[in-house]
TrEMBL record:
Classification via SMART domains: SEL1
Protein's name in the database: Sel1 repeat family protein
Record organism: Enterovirga aerilata
Transmembrane listed as a keyword: no
Alphabetized UniProt keyword annotations: Signal
Keyword Signal found: yes
Coiled coil: none
Signal peptide: 1-24
Length: 275
């Protein structure tokens, strides 16, 4: 299932009412071409503005960074829109504003939905689809972006299948595992977890590992499941990802010595293939 442009636009238009009539065009149809650079902007080009924005951000001057990034975003630079979206989503150098973040991510998705999966911008575009999916999954208070897991599933699916994005694959797998926005299907969950796990996504590795250890939706393979949990633990932060460490410890404690040895052998072969 691939999101066609009318469906994509219907998803993005939901925020227009909260943004007001003057900004509804951000979500409707193709955007106008880049504006001519105004002399007072102080940038030689939109690309120069993007570079200035990144440089100012890294130097800690986030006020100047926002100004430069806004200019580059208005000229169609997806990376500038993405960075602004992240800043507003996290309250990083600006007041946290999820609706404003949603607007920037929507702009990226609207203008770049057909970006080639192997293009340099594909990662940024896929990340924007994942962010939009999460906003539809959780909703934005006091706005027209309400909880809608079905739309979240559609956006995750697009980024997971067309772009092959591991974060989208992980998020989609969780929806299948929990039956949120899609029919509950543990086999589909394991499939999407596996795709993300093969790309090094620690959360997907951990949840796939647990499913294999327990035989949940897939044939039970304790040793292979333990291998995935070992990989997940290696990549996980002990504080931020304490749940992965706990899941690994539980599986290791219940594993037989044979399972542990076999899992170690699987792990060595898996790592050797990637050298």
């Amino acid at each position: 299932m691939r999101i066609c442009r009318p469906l994509l636009l219907s998803l993005l238009c939901l925020a227009a009412a909260a943004a007001g009539p003057a900004r509804a065009s951000d979500f409707m149809g193709p955007r106008p071409g880049p504006r001519a650079a105004a002399p007072q902007d102080g940038y030689a080009s939109a690309k120069d503005a993007l570079r200035s924005g990144v440089r100012n951000y890294n130097a800690g001057d986030k006020i100047a960074a926002v100004k430069a990034l806004e200019y580059a975003a208005d000229q169609g630079y997806a990376l500038a829109s993405w960075k602004l979206g992240r800043m507003y989503a996290e309250g990083d150098g600006v007041p946290r504003d999820d609706l404003k973040a949603f607007e920037y991510f929507s702009r990226i998705a609207d203008e770049n939905a057909d970006e080639a999966p192997d293009s340099p911008r594909a990662g940024v575009v896929a990340s924007a689809f994942v962010a939009l999916g999460t906003y539809f999954l959780e909703g934005i208070k006091n706005s027209s972006v309400v909880v809608n897991p079905e739309k979240a599933a559609e956006l995750y699916f697009y980024a997971a299948s067309y772009f092959g994005d591991p974060n989208a694959q992980y998020s989609l797998a969780q929806l299948y595992l929990n039956g949120s926005g899609v029919d509950r299907d543990e086999r589909q969950a394991a499939r999407w977890f596996n795709l993300a796990a093969e790309k090094g996504h620690a959360g997907a590795q951990a949840l796939l590992g647990r499913m294999l250890v327990n035989g949940q939706g897939v044939p039970r393979e304790r040793a292979r499941g333990l291998m995935w949990l070992m990989l997940a633990k290696e990549a996980a932060d002990p504080k931020r990802d304490a749940w992965i460490w706990a899941m690994h410890a539980e599986a290791l404690e219940s594993a037989s010595e044979t399972d542990r040895r076999t899992a170690t052998a699987f792990l060595e072969r898996h790592q050797a293939k990637r050298r």
